[in-house]
């Protein structure tokens, strides 16, 4: 199986590479169109600030490629947020794959949300064998509100979408590569899709 | 609900764990990776590695360690000690660290906080603050509490938040090593003052101290070293006790 992690200069990519290795696979890092198109699975990482990450995507031209991919694609954290319509962070437009706008938590709660929180309302093959209310590791200041494409929700200030799916596109706000054995199982599920 | 976090801290010198570790089941008590794996399996929510080596080789040794830890464990970890530039941070993050903790370098060059937050995001910038009370005032100290600064703890905390820190690791030098509990009053004031998570550090001696840090100190996470290393408190027992006190934890 060929697993490509999209390389556009954003994200803690090494942790994802290591997690995939622990599952017995190998991933390559690439920004090459042909290589990405030919992959069996594509992972779209992202940590940092949305508008500068989007800028890097535009500069590399990858913003036109990603929405056209046909194989399973998993956006993680900021990667998931960039797959939405737009983000309040830096007022940037997104890839428009998920029909939802990313907004910021208010000062009613500590921002960023940092730590382990539960995911529930699980509905996707991504969560095959995963129990409701398992804890996942999250670090984020912006979030996708609950919406029809939500396949998992989490409570922090509001009930929001902690995972999204549309066709072959998946996104998790949490970090499966940093969420213990359960997180690794979710990553393994993605690789089995 | 977002849980409170329990964070064991490992002191590292030249790539090895220092400060007596009392794990009979460890093949190599000085191997930080093996210790990290044990803590992760016992239910630690995160780990902190504090590098206290002072050799010229330190950077390379630390990067090697970060890679080994990141390839072995599947929970987040923070690396601190001697980090003073954007380049220092870049190489640690590239090799799998999730966050870095800066202390003296932030006091000497506060702009570093802004630079790191802008380049890597606030989520990976932990500002560690060591403070102790002098004439009733909480004063920020450097070099493990030896050198006082002119900074007031609360003013400095507010400033680091404004500059883009994602989290504050507050160590009370008055409590550190006493095993008499965390500095809950100062913690609660901090937690009300800033809107980023606060990690309590210094003073853990028993389970009740952790309960108090969360309930009275309103901390978001609690860090400790020796009580875990010497197995005076086991993480599983601690988390069960916290849960029994209606404190949300990941079990």
Automatic annotation (TrEMBL), chain A:
InterPro entries: Class_I_gatase-like (IPR029062), GATASE (IPR017926), Imidazole-glycPsynth_HisH (IPR010139). The keyword Hydrolase applies. Its main location: cytoplasm. GO terms for molecular function: glutaminase activity; imidazoleglycerol-phosphate synthase activity; lyase activity. It is found in: Cytoplasm. Keywords: Amino-acid biosynthesis, Cytoplasm, Glutamine amidotransferase, Histidine biosynthesis, Hydrolase, Lyase. NCBIfam families: IMP_synth_hisH (TIGR01855). HAMAP family: HisH. Heterodimer of HisH and HisF. IGPS catalyzes the conversion of PRFAR and glutamine to IGP, AICAR and glutamate. The HisH subunit catalyzes the hydrolysis of glutamine to glutamate and ammonia as part of the synthesis of IGP and AICAR. The resulting ammonia molecule is channeled to the active site of HisF. This is Imidazole glycerol phosphate synthase subunit HisH. The gene is hisH.
TrEMBL record, chain B:
It is found in: Cytoplasm. It comes from Flavobacterium yafengii. Pathway: Amino-acid biosynthesis; L-histidine biosynthesis; L-histidine from 5-phospho-alpha-D-ribose 1-diphosphate: step 5/9. It catalyses: 5-[(5-phospho-1-deoxy-D-ribulos-1-ylimino)methylamino]-1-(5-phospho-beta-D-ribosyl)imidazole-4-carboxamide + L-glutamine = D-erythro-1-(imidazol-4-yl)glycerol 3-phosphate + 5-amino-1-(5-phospho-beta-D-ribosyl)imidazole-4-carboxamide + L-glutamate + H(+). Belongs to the HisA/HisF family. This is Imidazole glycerol phosphate synthase subunit HisF. InterPro entries: Aldolase_TIM, His_biosynth, HisF, IGPS_HisA/HisF, RibuloseP-bd_barrel. GO terms for cellular component: cytoplasm. Keywords: Amino-acid biosynthesis, Cytoplasm, Histidine biosynthesis, Lyase. Its EC number is 4.3.2.10. Its main location: cytoplasm. IGPS catalyzes the conversion of PRFAR and glutamine to IGP, AICAR and glutamate. The HisF subunit catalyzes the cyclization activity that produces IGP and AICAR from PRFAR using the ammonia provided by the HisH subunit. One of its GO terms (molecular function) is imidazoleglycerol-phosphate synthase activity.
């Amino acid at each position: 199986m060929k697993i490509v992690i999209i390389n556009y200069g954003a994200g803690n990519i090494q942790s994802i590479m290591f997690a995939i290795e622990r599952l017995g696979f190998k991933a390559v890092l690439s920004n090459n169109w042909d290589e990405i198109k030919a992959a069996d699975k594509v992972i779209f990482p992202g940590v940092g600030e949305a508008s500068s990450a989007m800028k890097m995507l535009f500069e590399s031209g990858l913003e036109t490629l990603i929405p056209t991919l046909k194989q399973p694609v998993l956006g993680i954290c900021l990667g998931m947020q960039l797959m939405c319509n737009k983000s309040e962070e830096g007022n940037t437009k997104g890839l428009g794959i998920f029909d939802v706008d990313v907004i910021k938590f208010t000062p009613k709660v500590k921002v960023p949300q940092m730590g382990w929180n539960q995911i529930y309302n699980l509905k996707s093959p991504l969560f095959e064998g995963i129990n409701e209310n398992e804890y996942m590791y999250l670090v984020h200041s912006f979030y996708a509100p609950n919406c029809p494409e939500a396949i998992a929700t989490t409570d922090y200030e509001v009930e929001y979408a902690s995972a999204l799916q549309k066709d072959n596109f998946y996104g998790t706000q949490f970090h499966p590569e940093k969420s213990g054995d359960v997180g690794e199982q979710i990553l393994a599920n993605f690789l089995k899709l | 609900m977002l849980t409170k976090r329990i964070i064991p801290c490992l002191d590292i010198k030249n790539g090895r764990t220092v400060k007596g570790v009392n794990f009979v089941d460890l093949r190599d008590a000085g191997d930080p990776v093996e210790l990290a794996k044990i803590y992760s399996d016992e239910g630690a929510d995160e780990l902190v590695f504090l590098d206290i080596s002072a050799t010229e080789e330190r950077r390379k040794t630390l990067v090697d360690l970060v890679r080994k830890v990141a390839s072995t464990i599947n929970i987040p970890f923070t690396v601190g000690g001697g980090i003073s530039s954007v380049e220092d941070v870049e190489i640690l993050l590239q090799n799998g660290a999730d966050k870095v903790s800066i202390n003296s370098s932030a006091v000497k060059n506060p702009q570093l906080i802004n630079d790191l937050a802008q380049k890597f995001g606030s989520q990976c910038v932990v500002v560690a603050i060591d403070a102790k009370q002098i004439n009733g005032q909480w004063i920020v100290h450097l070099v493990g509490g030896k050198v006082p600064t002119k900074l007031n703890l609360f003013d400095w905390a507010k400033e680091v938040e404004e500059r883009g820190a994602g989290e504050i690791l507050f160590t009370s030098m008055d409590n550190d090593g006493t095993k008499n509990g965390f500095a809950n009053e100062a913690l609660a004031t901090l937690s009300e003052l800033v809107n980023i998570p606060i990690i309590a550090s210094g003073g853990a001696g028993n389970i009740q101290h952790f309960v108090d840090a969360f309930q009275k100190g309103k901390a978001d996470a609690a860090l400790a070293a020796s009580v875990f290393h010497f197995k005076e408190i086991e993480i599983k027992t601690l988390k069960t006790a916290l849960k029994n006190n209606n404190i949300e934890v990941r079990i």
